[in-house]
Design a protein that fits this description.
alpha+beta, Penicillin-binding protein 2a (Domain 2), Beta-lactamase
């Protein structure tokens, strides 16, 4: 009975427990063995692989951008500086959700659609993993504080310092100095492989002006560093570094004081002023007005600001008037007169009777002189070459040009830089047009006609020249035929560039040296010939050198008025019809000074272009005088009365003419 009522079999239960314990212990032992094997594999056999991955997560190699070289004027005034700013940057690989991150940042600081679009463009061209990409430039202190407070919510987002370009003179030097802006994909692809590597840490490149011309000197050489970052992308420490090499500092021939004076002299006019030192070829001033603020482009110009610049069709502030061509008008007459003397087509005694117009043999059409625009009409009467220059007699040059022919005219004037760009480091300047038979056939598919020669003889028709070319040509006359090629750059890191002097104008130097004196005298009379007989005074005398103007030196000049549209003589003489401002003639003036002075060589040659200024002598001439006054009297501080007193026996006065 006892066995019948037994409820448990303790021995069986013990056996079952022991079996289960053995199975569990075996499983634990196997799992522990597997863990040990895995640890051995990770720590020993795969050590190098996982060590490298760990370092890759915290150690990063990145570029160190070089500091861009500075640009100074001839007196050490800064024209292009580097300014520290703080940027909002993003490391793409450390951001989980880019759209969400951008949305959060937009709630904290101002981020425009332009900022996001440019940021995406930068991401597409970014080549180095874990490199920071700017999202927005120039954060304020308040914006920096907001980002810092919320950095725990923004992995991969940081605030980084950077030096960017700054142009202290703003619009004043916008076209000449140019500007830097963000490098685009096309510019990056155009670089050689070694050059592309040098732009690894740089977002900017020179786009226009000196910044573009001397990009290689200004940019410098990129550096490298290995840094340790935390999981938010913040740099914890720098482990190794190869320092970048800063770009070279450049000194230009430009004089900021003269640049200001020329810009101020232009006043409200649209136009250009170029000034050159004939002795060195140094470009002292290049003013194009209206201009723009180049600082807008450095960190990315907004669509609104850029749209305002490109849609201003009247002022066209992005258009560089110093390096783009216009009809040179009567400013070419001294050069054509010199060609006439050299070729023997005219001499000092050759004269014409000017009725106020010119006719080709067998042609009824009359090419009128500007005197037909006046109520008096009637031409200039008895006129020689000197009077034809200082009174700007079109008829004389119609006759001379016709007899000379376009072939001789083209060959001679090309030696003064017309149809070419003599400037060494203004490669972007256009060459204008010095027309020829071959040029017209190639560009127009038409033969050359005698009427084309007539128009070219007064700088109209197909002839076009830039203010830079006109200043260059004026400097060559000032140098009596010696060509000193214009240049912006004066020194690199203090090492001066020597002037590049070419052979003198070959044809003219074989002629009578007195021709140079004669042309200089004629150009001086443009400014200093006082009122005398009917129409026997200089075209710029009233505006520049009348006794009340108190000139301390003599200036040789030549005025010009370039017709914008063809307008009949009846309309021009009518007092009842008003010509639109945009259809008025352009005013031009070329000059050099001091003139007729054997004690000091000419120190400055100037070309002035005034868009729709009507009169070269009355409008452009005073601008040239204002620039010349500033340079000779205020900058060089030449005491002309003292010079005259010291060398009165050699000092040429108007009475000596």
């Amino acid at each position: 009975m006892a066995g019948k009522w037994q409820l448990k079999d303790h021995e069986a239960e013990q056996r079952l427990f022991n079996r289960r314990l053995i199975v569990a212990a075996s499983l634990v032992t196997l799992l522990f063995a597997a863990l040990v094997v895995k640890l051995v594999d990770l720590q020993i056999y795969q050590y190098e692989y996982f060590s490298a991955r760990a370092d890759g997560n915290r150690l990063h190699s990145q570029y160190v951008p070089p500091l861009r070289g500075l640009i100074f004027d001839r007196n050490g005034e800064l024209l292009a500086d580097n300014q520290p700013i703080f940027n909002l940057t993003v490391v793409r690989e450390q951001v989980v959700d880019m759209d969400a991150t951008l949305g959060t940042l937009s709630q904290l600081v101002r981020i425009t659609d332009d900022d996001i679009e440019q940021f995406k463009n930068r991401l597409r061209r970014s080549r180095v993993p874990y490199s920071s990409v700017p999202l927005r430039y120039v954060l304020s202190d308040a914006e920096q504080a907001k980002i810092a407070v919320n950095e725990h919510r923004l992995p991969g987002v940081a605030i980084e310092p950077q030096f960017v370009r700054s142009y202290p003179l703003g619009e004043l030097t916008a076209h000449a100095i140019g500007y830097v802006s963000e490098i685009n994909r096309e510019e990056l692809d155009a670089l050689a492989e070694d050059e592309r590597e040098n732009y690894g840490g740089t977002n900017h490149i020179g786009k226009t002006g000196i910044e573009r011309t001397y990009e290689e000197l200004l940019h410098g050489t990129v550096g490298y560093e290995i840094v340790e970052k935390n999981n938010r992308g913040q740099i914890m420490r720098r482990l190794d570094r190869t320092d970048p090499v800063a770009g070279k500092n450049l000194t230009l021939h430009m004089d900021a004081q003269l640049q200001r004076a020329a810009e101020e002299a232009l006043g409200d006019y649209r136009g250009a002023v170029v000034a050159i030192d004939p002795n060195t070829g140094g470009i002292l001033a290049m003013v194009s007005k209206p201009a723009f603020d180049p600082n807008l482009f450095v960190t990315g110009i907004s669509s609104r600001d850029y749209g305002a610049l490109v849609t201003d069709e009247i002022n066209t502030p992005l258009f560089d008037r110093t390096t783009n061509p216009y009809p040179p008008a009567s400013t070419v007459k001294p050069f054509l007169g010199l060609a006439g003397l050299h070729s023997g087509l005219v001499d000092y005694t050759y004269t014409i009777e000017d009725p106020g117009y010119f006719r080709l043999p067998g042609v009824s059409y009359r090419w009128g002189d500007y005197t037909l625009r006046t109520a008096l009409g009637g031409g200039h009467g008895h006129t020689d070459l000197m009077k034809a220059i200082y009174q700007s007699c079109d008829t004389f040059f119609y006759d001379l040009g016709y007899r000379m022919g376009i072939d001789n005219m083209h060959g001679f004037m090309s030696q003064f830089g017309f149809g070419d760009n003599f400037a060494l480091d203004v490669a972007y300047a256009r060459t204008g047009v010095l027309p020829s038979r071959e040029w017209k056939m190639a560009s127009r598919g038409e033969p050359w006609y005698p009427g084309d020669t007539i128009n070219s003889s007064i700088g109209q028709g197909y002839m076009w020249a830039t203010p830079l070319q006109l200043a260059t040509a004026a400097a060559i006359i000032a140098n009596k035929g010696t060509v000193v090629q214009p240049r912006m750059l004066k020194a690199v890191e203090g090492d001066a560039y020597e002037p590049l002097i070419e052979d003198a104008v070959p044809d003219v130097m074989l002629s009578d040296p007195d021709y140079w004196r004669y042309i200089e005298d004629a150009m001086t009379m443009v400014v200093h010939r006082p009122y005398g007989a009917f129409r026997d005074y200089g075209t710029a005398y009233e505006a520049i050198a009348m006794p009340d103007k108190d000139m301390a030196y003599k200036m040789a000049g030549k005025s010009g008025s370039a017709q914008v549209v063809s307008i009949s003589q009846d309309i021009l003489k009518s007092e009842d019809i008003e010509v639109s401002d945009l259809n008025k003639d352009h005013g031009l003036f070329i000059s050099f000074a001091p003139a007729q002075n054997h004690l000091i060589t000419p120190q400055i040659a100037v070309a002035v272009f005034v868009e729709n200024g009507e009169s070269g002598g009355k409008v452009a001439g005073p601008i040239a005088k204002a620039a010349t006054d500033t340079y000779l009297l205020d900058i060089l501080e030449i005491d002309f009365p003292a010079l005259e007193a010291a060398g009165s026996d050699r000092f040429i006065t108007q009475a000596d003419d």
